[in-house]
Amino acid sequence: MTDRVRKYIRQYQLLQEGDRVTVGLSGGADSVCLLLCMKAVQEEYRLQLQAVHVHHGLRGEEADRDAAFAESLCRKLAVPFRLRHARVRELARREGLSLEEAGRILRYQILREESNGGKIAVAHHRDDQSETLLFHMVRGTGIRGLAGMLPEKDGIIRPLLCVGRAEIEVYLQSVGQEYCVDSTNADTAYARNRIRCELLPWLRDNMNPRVSEHLAELAEQAAQLDAWLQEETVQWLDRYGERTPRGIRIPVKEWKELPAPLMAPVLLEALEQCGGRRDIGSVHIRQIEALMEAGVGSRASLPGGREAEREYTAVFLGSGREKTVHELPEWHMTVYPVQKGQKIEEKQYTKCFDYDKIKDTVLLRYRQTGDYLELAGTGKKTVKRYMIDRKIPAAVRDSVPVFADGSHVLWIVGYRISEEYKVTEQTRRVLQITVGGKEDE
């Protein structure tokens, strides 16, 4: 057992000399085996080893027994021990979580606090990996979900992924090591327990006794493929995705030109970058893909309070419509007389207007209800209608500056000026406005 775990540690470089390692010790067979294996390699890697037991306060005397056992085992092995209590019921009630999920969150939170920046070793084994894969497959998943649990991620290491539960129990029996049994592990009210206690045994007995090994091999191959896909999708998003303070915009045309195997991974990576993939299933990816063919303004709700919205040329993924307060740009204006026939020079961010047609005071602001401008051939048009026709994304319309004379907009900066204020042969005084300080800004 220890030789196989040692080889696995070397294969994935899970430990380096001098590492601080905090073992999550529940007192069950898996975590007891993990602690013994870490103790076996402690001298080789010169590890600073400690164990932490998280008391969830849910199982009464049984939980107290587990805590006492974990402390006694650490004393026997001369491993520093910490006991922490977690308010699982309180978190579950406050956040509307299941007890199982609240316990998981608090357990990892406490382990990170106690690790003080070092590595955290948890006791997931090959059968746990099988359960995870089957759970993801039934719920709906992509390549990332098929990769299951990784040997190392974010400072959390899993040295026992190379062995199964039966092997762990045989090893502990061979060295005469006792362990605790958590009665809730047999409670099939939990989906994972049903997979562990009912589905996996049926698959072993009726289909293939090595099902856990084969699923673990699938996970390893999927992890390698996922690493390549992530590199490709990150590069694509860096090139084509438009990041905003609230999310990311995926251009429809460029997305449709992707090879089919990269389409869903690009969307998954975009969701990762704007809030994470937690609770994202294949149904949500299909919703986003449907928006690529939907009409402007079509929307879909996503886990984590996010949503997807179809714009003119893109699909926006993020935390709702963007309502960020934008800072108005710098600008300056001058008024000067002009002679008949004199050439007036304009650029994208420098525009000239007939000063004498201005009725009130020119203000730089953002659009307001009732704003309009005059267009050649069509007459009066609201700024809202112009922006729709011009296919300016809804999420950015409120951030486009306008120069206005009351409700009459002289200039939608970067787009159009009103016909009413254009310089003509009858113009005698010109108002010149430059936005950005200098034209090239």
TrEMBL record:
Source organism of this protein record: Hominifimenecus microfluidus
Protein name, UniProt field: tRNA(Ile)-lysidine synthase
Subcellular location: Cytoplasm
Binding site for ATP: 26-31
Catalysis performed (reactions): cytidine(34) in tRNA(Ile2) + L-lysine + ATP = lysidine(34) in tRNA(Ile2) + AMP + diphosphate + H(+)
GO cellular component, one term: cytoplasm
PANTHER family: TRNA(ILE)-LYSIDINE SYNTHASE-RELATED (PTHR43033:SF1)
GO BP: tRNA modification
Group of enzyme by EC: ligase
